[in-house]
Design a protein that fits this description.
This protein is of the alpha+beta class. The chain is built from 18 helices and 15 strands.
């Protein structure tokens, strides 16, 4: 491998080698700069020192005495409305110190040796306290005193839950919240960009006649997912009030499965009707949950368990996606592994959340991001393929058009001339096609051309061979690396396949069905040749087939063409 690479580099021209070296140097410089640039996000200039106070706490409730709490990454199970009090002696010293507390659907009261530092607003029983960050400044003589934090949640699911608490200056803590959130903010931006690009591509595809509702669904999913992705990060807590932080976070969490299931519904080819119940179930629940919160009938935190049951039911979608993939649905071959991985990851997150065995890692978020990136790449590929097909394909017959024939034949001649390989070209004309149109009408004539084009496509066997419509009822078949025998075999096959089609043609003087006449030529490819050499020689052979009674082929060697010239 190294030897081949060395030989390749040795054979490169000096200017190309120089440009390759410049590209390599630019790549190294960019990598070094990005490494320096993004390191600053991990250790911001304003973040002098931040101390994690998650260890060494004790806690008590109204019903129990004091107990040790090894880490704030977990918490005891309490009933909704039951107050939990945390105690810890502050044994560190820092000038202008403050603490950072994150509350998830909890009210927070903070004391230092029973002197109040922060008292949360009073709420009516069962009212949602929301999700908030609290930056609480400590007095200068805080060292050696006991920090007491009271946490109360109206919901069983959040009562007794704790999050890590940090100590530092206000500026350091705010820089810390930005630093730990930056990765999610970047991914959010990428998700938004992916969603907008997918929706834009879907719109342009629709304008060009390609309707793909599944792409619209995944585009909407990407936008919803982008907004949800950062809802668990510190930075977002600083932009919304506690109530709206809760509503937005859970509302997006309840909603993302709607466009996701719609995507699979529209992508399915064999199990679409089986997917419909899942779409309706997720859509109705998400709409009902948001309306219940909007009219303040039921808070979203009370519906989390129901929503998680529905999310667990995504195994139904996973199974259907796998079955679709087994039926050769290419999109599901791509999507089903991502969905399966995301589903398993989500179940792991549920285990952490309900088992209170640590901070929920939200590992499934990145899996969906990679999935959306793959969909964007595929969608962009389909878009440009559609545009390319529109330029290079004949709209009536579906085979390549004259433009593609001219460009490809020129490229093939240039490529094969390096090795002096052979190239064969066949020119094919539908016999008495004008009489066919006059007898059966132009619509039948169009159908006849489509049948001929399909028959020609079935006749070629190799991936490099192709069929193009030359004009009117005339077609061309290009056969790179094909000698005389190969061209003759293909011509015989085309005549045989056309006879098997048995399309009636009462005015055909050569037979009672639609037939074709073929002219073929073969030659060694050289730099001096042009497209017209092969086309003219094959056309001469086609003319002779017509003169000799049609429904046949005639072969003329290209070398004789040059001798005549």
């Amino acid at each position: 491998m190294v030897k081949i690479l060395f030989t390749h580099v040795k054979n490169l021209r000096t200017d190309r080698l120089l440009f390759a070296a410049i590209v390599l140097i630019c790549a190294i410089c960019i990598t070094a700069f990005l490494n320096f640039y993004f390191k600053a996000y991990g250790q911001p200039y304003l973040m002098d020192e931040v101390i994690n106070l998650s260890e060494g706490w004790r806690y008590g409730t109204d019903r129990t005495g004091l107990s040790n709490l090894d880490t704030l990454r977990t918490g005891p199970r309490l009933q909704g409305g039951e107050k939990m009090t945390l105690y810890r002696t502050l044994d560190v010293t820092m000038k202008d110190a403050a603490i950072l507390i994150r509350a998830n659907h909890q009210t927070v009261n903070v004391y230092l040796d029973d002197a109040p530092l922060y008292i949360d607003r009073e709420l009516p029983p069962r009212q949602n306290p929301g999700m908030a960050l609290h930056f609480i400044l400590l007095p200068e003589d805080y060292s050696g005193k006991t920090l007491k934090i009271e946490l109360t949640s109206p919901y069983d699911l959040y009562a007794g839950r704790t999050s890590p608490i940090f100590l530092g200056t206000i500026s350091s803590l705010k820089a810390f919240t930005l630093s730990v959130s930056m990765r999610s903010v970047v991914v959010m931006g990428m998700c938004l960009l992916i969603g907008i690009l997918i929706i834009a591509l879907t719109f342009m595809q629709a304008l060009n006649g390609f309707v793909r509702p599944q792409n619209l669904a995944i585009g909407v999913f990407a936008v919803v997912w982008a907004c949800y992705y950062v809802c668990t990060e510190y930075i977002v807590f600083q932009f919304f009030s506690p109530y709206w932080m809760s509503v937005l976070s859970l509302g997006l969490y309840f909603s993302f499965q709607v466009p996701l299931t719609l995507y699979f519904y529209f992508s399915f080819e064999h199990y679409k009707k089986w997917m419909l119940p899942a779409v309706l179930l997720h859509s109705i629940f998400a709409a009902a949950a948001i309306l219940l919160q909007f009219f303040e009938i039921v808070d979203l935190p009370l519906l989390i368990n129901v929503n998680n049951v529905f999310l667990s039911g995504l195994i139904y979608t996973v199974v259907l996606a796998v079955l679709e993939a087994l039926k050769n649905n290419r999109m599901m071959m791509l999507a089903s592994p991502f969905l399966a991985i995301a589903y398993v990851s989500m179940l792991y997150n549920f285990a952490v959340f309900y088992g209170r065995s640590g901070v929920v890692p939200y590992t499934y978020r990145d899996t969906y991001f990679l999935f959306m990136l793959c969909v964007l790449i595929r969608d962009a590929w389909l878009f440009f393929k559609d545009m390319l097909d529109k330029v290079n394909y004949d709209a009536l017959t579906g085979v390549y058009n004259r433009r593609y024939l001219d460009e490809s034949l020129k490229r093939i001649i240039s490529l094969l001339s390096r090795s002096g390989s052979k190239l064969s070209v066949l020119m094919i004309d539908v016999d008495f096609f004008k009489k066919y149109n006059d007898t059966y009408g132009h619509l039948k004539g169009d159908e006849c051309l489509r049948v001929v084009a399909n028959t020609l496509n079935k006749s070629i066997m190799r991936i490099d061979d192709f069929v193009a419509r030359y004009g009117g009822e005339e077609f061309a078949v290009v056969l790179p690396n094909t000698d005389v025998n190969g061209a003759r075999i293909l011509a015989d096959r085309i005549l045989e396949y056309m006879k098997a089609c048995d399309m009636p043609h009462a005015k055909n003087e050569a037979a009672s069905c639609v037939t074709v006449s073929i002219g073929a030529t073969t030659g060694y490819v050289t730099y001096a040749q042009v497209n017209e050499d092969y086309i003219k020689r094959a056309d001469e052979a086609l003319y002779m087939s017509k003169q000799n009674g049609r429904n046949r082929y005639t072969f003329l060697d290209l070398e004789d063409f040059y001798k005549q010239g």
